[in-house]
Amino acid sequence: MPVHELTYLCLANATSVMLKAPDNQVAGHQARNGNLGPLIDDSGRFYKPLQGDERGSKEVAFYTSFSSNTKVPDHIARFFPKFHGTQLLEASDGSGMLPHLVLQDLTFGRVNPSIADIKIGAMTWAPQAPEDYIQKCMKKDRETTSLVFGFRLSGMQVFESKESGFWRPEGRRKIQTLSLDCMKLYLKKFVSSNTSKMSLDLKPDCAFASTVYGGSNGILSQLLELKAWFEDQTIYHFYSCSILMMFEKELALTGKNPRPEIRLVDFAHVYEGNGIIDHNFLGGLCSLIKFTSEILTTPEESYGDGLMTGDARTSHTYSENKNGRV
Amino acid sequence: MPVHELTYLCLANATSVMLKAPDNQVAGHQARNGNLGPLIDDSGRFYKPLQGDERGSKEVAFYTSFSSNTKVPDHIARFFPKFHGTQLLEASDGSGMLPHLVLQDLTFGRVNPSIADIKIGAMTWAPQAPEDYIQKCMKKDRETTSLVFGFRLSGMQVFESKESGFWRPEGRRKIQTLSLDCMKLYLKKFVSSNTSKMSLDLKPDCAFASTVYGGSNGILSQLLELKAWFEDQTIYHFYSCSILMMFEKELALTGKNPRPEIRLVDFAHVYEGNGIIDHNFLGGLCSLIKFTSEILTTPEESYGDGLMTGDARTSHTYSENKNGRV
User: Fold this and answer.
1) What ipTM is given for this predicted complex?
2) Residues 237 to 296 of A: which have CB under 8 A from any B CB?
3) Which terminus has fewer CB within 10 Å in chain B: N or C?
4) Are B250 and B112 contacting, i.e. CB atoms less than 8 angstroms apart?
C-alpha cells in the first residue's frame, strides 16, 4: 500500500491508529492521490470527512436524529450504517485536522464484494432547498436516468476472479445515463458468473440472480421491506440518498450464501417528513424493485436494437404514434 | 334550466339530442355562460370538446389505445371512463361544430354525489414534454401542493342537504395550495355528516369514513387495487391525470351502501411507459393512500396551530432544528 494512501487517526489519548482509503468505494470522493475522501480503520469503522458547506452538519444532524429515533423499527434501522459520533482527524488530503463522521464500514469482513451504488429518486433535491441548488440538481436529474427511471447508477464493482479482479464500468457520466436496455444489462451483469469481459455479445447468465436478488433474505426481499416502511413513514425525506446492493461472488460460486445485503448511505440532504410520506424516494424504490423483479421473472429477455446506444429519455406520446396503440 | 346552458347534438342521421352542462363537474372548463366545456345527454354519455392544441388528439389517442388494450385487466379498466369514440357537435360556446370525445358520464344515475377531484403526481409534466410547458407546469407544481404532497386538490363538492345543496370550497387557487392540516380537514369533511357550514370550529365527525374510505369495497381498497397495478404496469405514464372520489351521502344517511367509487380522468398528457413504471403517479397515489388511511385509523387526530393558515411547503432540515431530532 503506498504511503500516500495512509493517514493517522489522532485519538484523544494520543495513540495513533493507521487509516487507509477504502478498497470497496464505488462512488463519491476518494481519498487517493492526495484528495479528500473517507478513510477506514482495521476494526470496521468508516471515517467520512464532513463536507465543508452545510451538508456536513446536516448529515451529522441526520445520524444523530436517526440513531436515537425509537420510532424506526430494528428491521429498518439495520439498513443504515451504525453511527459512532464524530471525530477530528488528519484529512486524507493533508489539509490538516477535519471533523469526520465515524460510521460502520459496510464492507468490513467481506471478501471481494460486488457492490452497486444506486441513487434513489426522480428528484435529488428537496422542494425547500436553495434555488440555485434545485436548478443544478434538476438539470442533472433530467440529463441522467433519475427523472425517467426514478434512480440512477452512481457506481458499481463486480468481482470477476482473483486473477482479473473487479469489473468497474468506465465513465461516471456513462453509468448515470444508461439506456433502459443497458440498465437491465448492468443489473443482470451484477449477478452473473460470466463477467470476465464487459462484452456486448456476451449475454449475462444471471447465475446468481436467484440467490442474490431472490429468496426470502435476498435483495428484492430487503427492498420490499424498505418499501413497506416508506409507504408508512413520514419522519424523513431522503433526497439524493443511495442504496448499496452487495454480495460475495466467491461464496455463491461455492454454493454458500452470498450474503446479499442492501444499505442506505449519504444523508446530507435528508429533511423532515412533516407528516407526508417520501413519495419521491418511494417511487424510485418501486421502480428499482420492478427492474430487479423482472430479472428474476424473465432473466432470458432479449435485448432490442437500443443496446448500449439507447437513450432513457426517448419516448413517444400517443399522437406521435402511428396508430395510437401500444 | 336556462337556454344558454343547452346545446344540441347533431347526429349523422340529422336527429337532435338535447345536451346540457353537467351538474356535477368540480374541476376543469365548464360549459356555462357561453364558455366552452363538456356536455352530457340524458342517457349517460359525457361529451368533452377536444382541446384545440395537440392535447385533444393525444387524449383521443390514449382512449383509443386504452380501450383496445387487452393487457389492462378488467378490475383496472373499470376505473376508467368507457370510451365511445368521437363526434362532431355544436360547441357549448356557440363557436360552431367541434369534435368531442364521447365518454361515459361518470355521475350518471347518482343522486347528489359528493365528489373530490385530485390531480395525482408530484410532477404534472412528462420529461419529454416541450420545455416551455415543463417550466410552466413545474412552477405550478412548486406553488401548489403537488410537489410536496404528491397530489393536489383540483375541485370538490360535498353534499350537505336538500335545503342547502352542496358545499364547494371557494377559490381554485386556495384548494390547490392547502396546508397539511387543511388537506386532512378537507378529506375528513368529505366523509363527514356535519358539513352544514365550513366552520373552523366545527370538527368534521368523519361519520362516513368507515363506509366510504373503509371496507372491502371502499375508496381505500380501490386505491390499493390501483396501486398494485401501478407497481407493475409499464405501458402508460399518466401525467396531470386526476382521480375522482365519489359517493352518495343520502344513501349513507339511511344506512345503505353509499356507492364509493374512484375513477381516473383527464388523459391529455399520457405517454408510453416504455418498460418503466409510472413512479411519479405511483408515489403520489401512495401519498393519497396514506392520507386516506390515516383518517380511518386516527379520525380524532387534533389539528395544530397551522389550521387553515399553514403552508405545505414549510419544512426544516435537521441542521436548522434546535437539537437535530424529530
Assistant:
1) 0.88
2) 270-272, 274-277, 279-280, 282-284, 286-287, 289-290
3) N
4) yes
Q: How many CB pairs under 8 A join A and B?
A: 167
| Interhelix angle B279-297/B180-189, nearest 10 degrees | 70
Class of the CATH-defined domain A113-316 = alpha beta
Q: What is the pLDDT along chain B (326 residues), one digit of tens a residue?
A: 333 333 444 444 334 568 898 888 888 878 777 888 999 999 999 999 998 788 889 999 999 999 999 999 999 999 999 999 999 999 888 889 999 999 999 999 999 999 999 999 999 999 999 999 999 999 999 999 999 999 999 999 999 999 989 999 888 888 999 999 999 999 999 999 987 665 555 789 999 999 999 999 999 999 999 999 999 999 999 999 999 999 999 999 999 999 999 999 999 999 999 999 999 999 999 999 999 999 999 877 654 433 333 344 444 444 433 333 32
Q: How near does any CA of chain B get to the CA of A319, in Å?
A: 5
Residue ranges of domains in chain B: 7-104, 113-316
Cα-to-chain-centroid distance, residue B272: 22
Cβ-based contacts of B313 with chain A (< 8 Å): 127-128
The model carries a pTM of 0.89
Interface membership of B213 toward A (CB under 8 Å): no
Q: Which CATH number fits the domain A7-104, given the four candidates 2.50.20, 3.30.450, 3.30.200, 2.40.30?
A: 3.30.200
Please name the residue that has the C-alpha cell 476472479. A161
Facing residue for A283 by CB, picked from B282, B313, B317: B282
- The residue of chain B nearest to residue A275, with distances taken between CA atoms, is B180
Residue B229, chain A, CB below 8 Å: the answer is no
Q: Which amino acid is at B36?
A: L
> Hey, are the CB atoms on B270 and A318 less than 8 Å from each other?
yes
For B291, which residue in chain A has the nearest alpha carbon? A276
